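Obj: model holo form, ligand = zinc ion.
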Amino acid sequence: MPVHNNPESWREALKFINRCPICSSSYKVETAKLFAKTDTASLVHLTCSSCSSYFVAMVIVVGQGLSSVGMVTDLSYDDARRLYAAPALTTDELIEGYTELNKEFFLQSLLLKG
Ligand SMILES: [Zn+2]
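Output (holo structure tokens):
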């Protein structure tokens, strides 16, 4: 059966994402949670049960097979789900953030706000 006909086909790709890149512990498949899906791609969040680090993988249907690409992240599952739906940062917002970070006494100003 072609993989794209199976709504759970992203789970097949987890066989290849079997170890945490931080501590090398085996992932427990039940920690994998789907947080976004299109016709050809699924975004999956994994939490390492050993070191609690997070990993996000994109599982893509390629022809009759599956491919995946992933990265370590500091986003929890709830963060990933929430921010996936958020609009992308604009160039103006990036420049504003960069400018703020480079202001003299930026860190001290954060401490004084509290
Ligand atoms: Zn780990």
